[in-house]
């Protein structure tokens, strides 16, 4: 080969490499556009479905618009809220991102369609007095404004990487539209006070309970001389507690469609399921532990499967409980349009529930990975033991809150539990560091402690700020949307 030929091949290789880089860049830029395109197509299909059902009927245009907005809200719930259930399992490497998305999509849809309540509060936990609305038309505009504003706020929060409460977003949207439509007197300020209290109670409860379980695992298993023997003794107990807690959680929050269960009955069901789970898991854990080395890496393998099961159960319960955030206002609009009246509680038509279930799944698949990564690995480093504590805390906190009669946010609980695990690790690390260093090395240890923060403070401040302003931000948005809708459509 001549020198000229060699130069030509080198030039050709460079050109081909540039083309390859251009193709990769195009794919990277085009990937978000594909997600947006699929999401837009689903929103359009939801609107067309409503048109098929209600086409030609009086007020059908409003129902079609509401169906599209309900689909948009459901997509945003899937993109933001579901990360709290799957993030810890992915961050602990117990699940791949693809596996987490598949499990969450299936469990969320199953929870919404099988156990989602067929009766939903249209006024979001009694925030607005329906009788304060002037007429049905005003009520429908208020629900449309609440849907659009809450969806826009959750969309913005997802974009900036902040997991927020979709329940609080809907509550804020209903409140803002209600105040604009009927004045401040129409708001149930006692309910709003409880919701504001839940901003603090939910994450604190979740964090304290998660930290408590992590302390127990460290003390009773991880720092024992024979870790495997300790795991054989305590892992079945923890699995029993987990299954009992989730059985109680699902009985309280996820089985409204099938049967109404009070807290005492739910606790008895949980105790029975927990005891049975202990009996079944004890020999399985013993068999799994055979031949494992006496180190923490072996313990991670023993907690991986319970963590995956807990994540799936959380997703099922979330789908059953939070689908109403997307379809509650939509169901209210459908009812008001059909009967010419508004009610505190209405039945959810099956096609409305399908929009909510599919929308959550689409949002998770298309846009969920961003917040799954953030919750699972960017706030603090998680392993299967820590992530298991987060999942267990989420179920137990809901039970405690139900017993206390407090409205809580599943988002605040789960993320608060992640923060609780992270801050407990910081405290525990500092404690052990001070116990092991000699006196003259304390100054160096203090510098190391300040340098090594196990919880990213930037994420902590961003998330807390987003939590605080979710209700007022969505309320202001909703008030503006309602003003535009009511004044420019008359």
UniProtKB/TrEMBL annotation:
<keyword id="KW-1133">Transmembrane helix</keyword>
<keyword id="KW-0813">Transport</keyword>
<keyword id="KW-0592">Phosphate transport</keyword>
<feature type="transmembrane region" description="Helical">
    <location>
        <begin position="387"/>
        <end position="406"/>
    </location>
</feature>
<feature type="transmembrane region" description="Helical">
    <location>
        <begin position="258"/>
        <end position="280"/>
    </location>
</feature>
<dbReference type="GO" id="GO:0016020">
    <property type="term" value="C:membrane"/>
</dbReference>
<feature type="transmembrane region" description="Helical">
    <location>
        <begin position="229"/>
        <end position="252"/>
    </location>
</feature>
<dbReference type="Pfam" id="PF01384">
    <property type="entry name" value="PHO4"/>
</dbReference>
<feature type="transmembrane region" description="Helical">
    <location>
        <begin position="412"/>
        <end position="428"/>
    </location>
</feature>
<protein>
    <recommendedName>
        <fullName>Phosphate transporter</fullName>
    </recommendedName>
</protein>
<feature type="transmembrane region" description="Helical">
    <location>
        <begin position="196"/>
        <end position="217"/>
    </location>
</feature>
<dbReference type="InterPro" id="IPR001204">
    <property type="entry name" value="Phos_transporter"/>
</dbReference>
<feature type="transmembrane region" description="Helical">
    <location>
        <begin position="460"/>
        <end position="485"/>
    </location>
</feature>
<feature type="transmembrane region" description="Helical">
    <location>
        <begin position="138"/>
        <end position="162"/>
    </location>
</feature>
<feature type="transmembrane region" description="Helical">
    <location>
        <begin position="169"/>
        <end position="190"/>
    </location>
</feature>
<dbReference type="GO" id="GO:0005315">
    <property type="term" value="F:phosphate transmembrane transporter activity"/>
</dbReference>
<keyword id="KW-0472">Membrane</keyword>
<keyword id="KW-0812">Transmembrane</keyword>
<feature type="transmembrane region" description="Helical">
    <location>
        <begin position="301"/>
        <end position="320"/>
    </location>
</feature>
<comment type="similarity">
    <text>Belongs to the inorganic phosphate transporter (PiT) (TC 2.A.20) family.</text>
</comment>
<feature type="transmembrane region" description="Helical">
    <location>
        <begin position="348"/>
        <end position="367"/>
    </location>
</feature>
<dbReference type="GO" id="GO:0035435">
    <property type="term" value="P:phosphate ion transmembrane transport"/>
</dbReference>
<feature type="transmembrane region" description="Helical">
    <location>
        <begin position="60"/>
        <end position="79"/>
    </location>
</feature>
<feature type="transmembrane region" description="Helical">
    <location>
        <begin position="91"/>
        <end position="115"/>
    </location>
</feature>
<feature type="transmembrane region" description="Helical">
    <location>
        <begin position="33"/>
        <end position="54"/>
    </location>
</feature>
């Amino acid at each position: 080969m001549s020198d000229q030929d060699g130069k030509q091949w080198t030039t050709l290789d460079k050109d081909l490499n540039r083309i390859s880089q251009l193709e990769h860049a195009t794919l990277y830029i085009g990937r978000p556009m594909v997600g947006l395109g699929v999401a837009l197509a689903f929103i359009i299909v939801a609107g067309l479905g409503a048109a098929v059902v209600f086409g030609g009927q009086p007020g059908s245009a409003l129902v079609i618009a509401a169906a599209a907005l309900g689909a948009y809200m459901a997509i945003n719930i899937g993109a933001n809220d579901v990360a709290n259930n799957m993030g810890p399992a992915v961050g602990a490497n117990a699940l791949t991102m693809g596996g987490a998305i598949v499990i969450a999509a299936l469990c969320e849809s199953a929870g919404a369609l099988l156990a989602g309540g067929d009766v939903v509060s249209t006024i979001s936990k009694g925030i607005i007095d329906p009788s304060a609305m002037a007429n049905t038309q005003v009520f429908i505009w208020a629900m449309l404004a609440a849907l659009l504003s809450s969806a826009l706020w959750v969309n913005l929060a997802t974009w900036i990487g902040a997991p927020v409460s979709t329940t609080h977003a809907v509550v804020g949207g209903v409140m803002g539209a209600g105040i604009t439509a009927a004045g401040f007197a129409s708001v149930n300020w006692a309910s709003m006070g409880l919701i504001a209290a839940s901003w603090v109670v939910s994450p604190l409860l979740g964090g304290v309970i998660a930290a408590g379980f992590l302390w127990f695992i460290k003390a009773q298993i991880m720092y024992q001389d024979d870790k495997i023997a300790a795991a054989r003794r305590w892992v079945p107990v923890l699995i029993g507690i987990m299954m009992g807690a989730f059985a109680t959680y699902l009985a309280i929050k996820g089985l409204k469609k099938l049967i109404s269960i009070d807290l005492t009955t739910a606790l008895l069901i949980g105790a029975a399921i927990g005891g049975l789970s202990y009996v079944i898991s004890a020999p399985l854990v013993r068999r799994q532990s055979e031949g494992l080395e006496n180190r923490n890496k072996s313990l991670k393998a023993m907690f991986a499967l319970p963590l995956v099961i807990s994540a799936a159960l959380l997703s099922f319960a979330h789908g059953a409980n939070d689908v109403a955030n997307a379809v509650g206002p939509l169901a209210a609009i459908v009812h008001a349009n059909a009967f010419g009246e508004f009610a505190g509680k209405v039945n959810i038509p099956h096609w409305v529930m399908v929009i909510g279930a599919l929308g959550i799944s689409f949002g998770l698949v298309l846009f969920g990975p961003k917040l799954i990564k953030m919750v699972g690995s960017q706030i603090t480093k998680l392993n299967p033991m820590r992530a298991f504590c987060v999942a267990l805390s989420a179920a137990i906190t809901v039970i405690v809150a139900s017993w206390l009669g407090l409205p809580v946010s599943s988002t605040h609980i789960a993320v608060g539990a992640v923060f609780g695990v992270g801050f407990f690790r910081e405290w525990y690390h500092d404690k052990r560091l001070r116990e092991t260093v000699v006196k003259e090395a304390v100054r160096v240890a203090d510098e190391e402690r300040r340098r090594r923060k196990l919880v990213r403070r930037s994420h902590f401040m961003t998330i807390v700020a987003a939590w605080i302003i979710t209700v007022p931000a969505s309320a202001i948005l909703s008030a503006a949307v309602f003003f535009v809708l009511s004044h420019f459509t008359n």
